[in-house]
Design brief:
The protein is an all-alpha fold. The protein has five helices and no strands. It is globular and about 50 Å long.
């Protein structure tokens, strides 16, 4: 990614942060995507099974509790804005449509979401798309 679009860099130069970024990107795919997909599919159906919805929402909450501990002292997941943050952004945008939000006691994760919301890329990639001015 950085080879094609070097500014801003999305891959940390520091090897430890880079490894952490890859781990969090993988964590997103393994821990957040499946329950979000189940919620999406279940809530779009005619008969949303309450147990399936509750279990998926609990899994989503667990992801944010984990991320909250990773965000100690940094505005983004690996310090600076990276591919790890990009990976989570789309899911963060659709969670309200699924009746889910970051738990209120995850203050660092909630602040992280706010940092993401302030980036121009949040609006540019918003789902559902926001109307373009003009």
């Amino acid at each position: 990614m950085d080879a094609l679009y070097p500014e801003p860099p999305l891959v940390p130069a520091d090897p430890l942060r880079r490894a952490r970024m890859h781990a969090l990107d993988h964590y997103h795919d393994q821990a957040l995507t499946p329950p979000v997909r189940r919620l999406w599919d279940t809530l779009r159906g005619e008969h949303a099974d309450p147990d399936t919805v509750a279990a998926a929402r609990a899994e989503v909450a667990a992801v944010f509790y984990h991320l909250d501990t990773n965000l100690a002292g940094a505005p983004y997941l690996v310090g600076g804005f990276s591919i790890a943050d990009v990976a989570f952004m789309a899911r963060l945008q659709i969670l309200p449509l699924l009746g889910v939000d970051i738990p209120t006691d995850c203050a660092r994760a909630r602040a992280w979401k706010q940092h993401l919301r302030e980036r121009p890329t949040w609006t540019a990639t918003m789902y559902p798309p926001l109307p373009r001015p003009g």
